[in-house]
Design brief:
Helices cover 54% and strands 12% of the residues. With 127 residues, it is mainly α. Strands 1-2-3 form a three-stranded mixed sheet. Helix 3 runs antiparallel to helix 4. This is UPF0175 family protein. It comes from Lautropia dentalis.
């Protein structure tokens, strides 16, 4: 989310308008403290309401976690993740290397090659 100081607002109003036209939120601050957030006026805003639209926008931009977004939207985390997904917002943001590690660990678990799987099996008298 782009941030603008109230003192520069008059000279940079076109920048805020451009952000809104591109569907992005902007924050206006005074002395470094948040003063207000500009929210694009869209059909989604009319249908979902300000809290849900704001939560989705902040989550989409990576400014807040899914848990905080859910609280802001007045939803449970699973409800918010379902809603975000239905609106085309990715709810999982894996780094490609991290995803490869997760998939390798899953494959090792499925094939029984993960060290902890063998330990668990031995403790149950298997293998």
């Amino acid at each position: 989310m782009r941030s603008f100081d109230i003192l520069e607002l008059h000279g940079r109003s076109e920048d805020i308008v451009r952000e809104v036209e591109q569907g992005r939120l902007s924050m206006v601050t005074r002395h470094g403290q948040p003063l207000f957030v500009s929210v694009p006026f869209t059909e989604a805003l009319l249908q979902a309401g300000v809290h849900t639209t704001l939560a989705l926008g902040l989550f989409r931009q990576g400014d807040i976690s899914s848990g905080r977004a859910a609280r802001l939207a007045g939803m449970t985390r699973p409800e918010f993740l379902d809603y975000a997904s239905s609106m085309g917002v990715p709810v999982v943001d894996y780094d490609p290397a991290e995803l490869d590690e997760e998939l390798a660990a899953f494959d090792a678990m499925v094939t029984g090659e993960a060290p902890w799987v063998n330990t668990c099996a031995r403790s149950r008298g298997q293998r």
